[in-house]
Amino acid sequence: MPPDRPPNSPSTSSPRAAPKPRLTPAQAIVKAWRSQSSSSQNKWREADAKARAQFSDPKPQRGREPKAKM
């Protein structure tokens, strides 16, 4: 049987560093966004606007016209 340790032994009473709280994905994104320069943020906004316009505009539908009868 192992000997009992006294309650004030160094291995049990040593101060431990508190673990860093983990960031959620949203918090990590916010932190990264805030670290960007304002010009970089503007470039991201422009790229986002272009992508939004590209995918939200209606696309021409080819082959949907009724075929002419001969």
From TrEMBL:
Chain intervals for the UniProt region annotation (Disordered): 1-70
Compositional bias ranges of the Low complexity kind: 10-21
Species per Swiss-Prot/TrEMBL record: Neolentinus lepideus HHB14362 ss-1
Biased composition (Basic and acidic residues): 59-70
Identification of the protein by name: Uncharacterized protein
